Amino acid sequence: MSSSLYIGLMSGTSLDGIDAALVDVGPNPPELLAHIHQPLPPALKQSLLELTQPSGDGEIDRLGAADVEFSRVQAHAVKNLLEKSGLRADHVAAIGSHGQTIRHRPDAPAPFTLQIGDPNTLAEQTTLTVVCDFRRRDMAAGGQGAPLVPAFHAHCCRSEQFDRVIVNIGGMANLTALPRHPGAELLGFDTGPGNVLMDAWAQRHLNQPYDRDGQWACQGEAIPALLETLLEDPFFAQPPPKSTGRERFHLGWLERHLAGFPELDPVHVQATLLQLTACSISQAIRELPLQCPDIYLCGGGAHNRALVKQIAQQLPGCQVELTSALGLDVDWMEAMAFAWLAMRRLEEKPGNLPGATGARGERILGGVYCA
User: pLDDT-based confidence at 56, cuts 50/70/90?
Assistant: First the structure.
């Protein structure tokens, strides 16, 4: 059956679960028809978290098991989504699966990126065609393999009247610069940690997965010397294209910096981490070749009121809103993007944005696993 309906599956560096979105890719912007969030079983989440950092003792066996188990959870999410929407599998053209990033090494001597989630299991259990492995073709063409969502941002959000910047604040944060001039280059890159450090610190000290609305951070005061030290990481000064992940920004990275600041109150560290995310995003926007662009935020960090306030304060003169003002739900942008990328693959159209990834040119992305 010919259909403009696709399912996008996204699990990011936050490891909070799988976002499943049913999308009609026909309109522009594409229409989000239904969505669910499928939490990861705690044991699988812990296994995935451990796999994001190098370790020994059966790592390949653990990776293989997590690959299949993760795809089973994905299939469960798809079945629940179809039940919620009242559709059969044959109403949907394909699934676009980002998978779960386990390792991302674009700067290695032999650059590679690894997203798990066995597409064979996913196709078998859902009876749907699966498109996955979107990142490696871009990397083979000299790109970073990330970020990929900027191509979707350009499709949905570009304006001929206004310069715009779309900022996705997930575990990591990335932006897409959308100049209003038709001939101007579109840019996109990771800016650094989004929620990943704040979430990990809240889990450690509050036993909570995140700091709701930044309320805990607001009880502390950012430590200027610590913030300056954190911002000295070479990634922040590195010119784009660039991308990053848990390989670089994780609790161990933070602890190494905290070693020079003994006996800090954890609440002040949280306030500093919030400032780190706000400063790195704001600095990246200020360095763009745009004058006071309109800023649109999405991702989990868009719900952190304290973070949004800090970003707005650091970008005076810029309008800062959520992508919902453009008709795009802040929580489902990435899942929608991978539904759209699946459509691009089946129609044999390029899915990357060379100005974001640094690839030598546009490429058709993804492998297809038939139902």
Answer: confident
Q: How far is CA 264 from CA 73, 206, 269, 273, 275, in A?
A: 40, 16, 7, 13, 16
pTM for the whole structure: 0.95
Q: Are 286 and 159 in a shared domain?
A: yes
pLDDT in tens, 162-173: 999 999 999 999
Q: What are phi and psi of 156, to 5 degrees?
A: -95, -30
* Average pLDDT of span 43-71: 92
* Same domain assignment for residues 208 and 270: yes
Range(s) of the domain holding residue 86: 5-145+334-369
- The CA distance from 190 to 174, in Å, is 4
Task: State whether 160 and 293 are in the same domain.
Answer: yes
340: how many CB neighbours lie within 10 A of its CB? 23
Q: Domain count of the chain?
A: 2
Could you give the CA distance from residue 24 to residue 30 in angstroms, rounded to a whole number? 6
| Tens of pLDDT, residues 191-233 | 999 999 999 999 999 999 999 999 999 999 999 999 999 999 9
In this structure, the answer to whether residues 345 and 282 fall within a common structural domain is no
What does pLDDT average to over the chain? Answer: 96
Domain co-membership, 207 together with 133: no
Structure tokens at 8: 């996008």
Same domain for 132 and 66? yes
DSSP secondary structure, 141-181, as one string = TTS-S---HHHHHHHHH--SSS-EEEEEESSEEEEEEE-SS
